[in-house]
């Protein structure tokens, strides 16, 4: 689509601002550069989904030091990758990351496809990631819409339809302002604008390079855009986890199923997360209920996880896939945050109350 008139001015004004104020990020090439590494772009975009730049920085540095190329990542053991990912959340992304790396290495000679269609054919690569990599790594004109861009565009055009129904209109408007040249810089400039100036709360409209062309500014309440539908209350679930400690200072860590919440990760064995108030322990014994339950919030529900503890003999082997792990090296197990907090509860011996089993 040809960019004309007001849309052309938006693109040129934003790119001029980006040339001076672009954020320096470890995965980003300077404005106007043609040397962006597709592997680093792809890796950063997957990591940044539902996560902040500040949180991703240390993970990105460790990943690229340990696995400096897509071929190196493709050769990683599943368990090593999942452990390194722990703390970034949305663990299905980690499994897709490895599947994609292996597809690029085995089917494309270690080279990422340079078109949106080619990128979308890779495992775990959706519309947004394909557009971002095509634009930023290969300079292809692509409409890149993440949460920051969504907010900027909704304000520029004062789109009053509530989300998520507004997304088609937002994408159409984003298409109108995306230039043919410097598509990667434009995409990153839009992301920067949303992250640093056109923020969710208290947008800094006074220093915005697009203020003169922003329809939301004229409403006197730009923070009201994008309009959001009323939130539904999250369901609340109950769960139980079992801390099985051996006398020599090891704890039993189960391997969670590959599919489902926290799939493929190490964790404490436990019950399904539903409304069952009383659990069925893995085996009979003097279990102790630890209070209070661990409170955790996932995207679609909140969870109260009660931890139950027991100490077993040296020769005890729990059922199911898992391994004995040294408690003093638990930080190296790559546990998801939920189980880190459950382990912390279990190690506070003074908080143990009598079991009812």
Tell me about this structure.
The chain is built from 12 helices and 7 strands. The chain is of the alpha+beta class and 357 residues long. Strands 1, 2, 3, 4, 5, 6 and 7 form a 7-stranded mixed sheet that branches. The longest helix is centred in the first third of the chain and has 17 residues. It is globular and about 75 Å long.
Shape: globular
Characterize the main sheet: 7 strands, mixed
Percentage of residues in DSSP E strands: 5-15%
Query: What's the β-strand tally?
Result: 7
SSE arrangement:
Blueprint: H1 5-21, H2 38-48, H3 53-66, H4 70-74, H5 78-85, H6 92-107, H7 116-120, H8 127-138, H9 147-156, H10 167-177, H11 183-196, E1 236-246, E2 250-255, E3 266-267, E4 288-297, E5 302-312, E6 322-326, H12 337-346, E7 352-353
Parallel strand pairs: 1-5
Antiparallel strand pairs: 1-2, 2-3, 2-6, 4-5, 4-7
Name its key features.
alpha+beta; 357 residues; disordered C terminus; seven-stranded mixed beta sheet; 12 helices; 7 strands
Brief sketch in words of this structure:
This protein is α+β, with helices and mostly antiparallel strands and 357 residues long. The protein is built from twelve helices and seven strands. A hairpin with a 3-residue loop joins strand 1 and strand 2.
